[in-house]
Description:
Helix content: 25-40%
Strand order of the largest sheet: 3-4-5-6
Amino acid sequence: MAAQDSRPAGDAGETEELDEAAARTQRVLLITVIVLGVLLIIGFAIVVATIASRISASGEEAETAPVPQVAVTPAGEFEVPVPAGYTIRSVTGDERRLVIHLVSDRQPERIMVVNTRSGLVIRNLVLTPDVP
């Protein structure tokens, strides 16, 4: 005796519809996975590029609004205005910035940071005593 198929004859059409629906669902899932994978790769590339640009720019000084205007001569020399009542205690620097330590008898100490390329004062720090 041959084994008989327990499905009625009308089920063959339903099976084809289910196969088509399953194939359509698989195509949609495949497209979704590919699109999301591409978006993930693009997002990762953006994160890496952002980190790389921030690391490369970390050594550069962020230019802020200059406090006093410094006069630069055509020869590249510049004059840094020392506030009234202050004297220069020390000067240090490198190829990008010059740090000037200023002291006064009546006012708090100051540190001026000057950009050596432009001659602009990029930082003006006032050292105030910490009062408990």
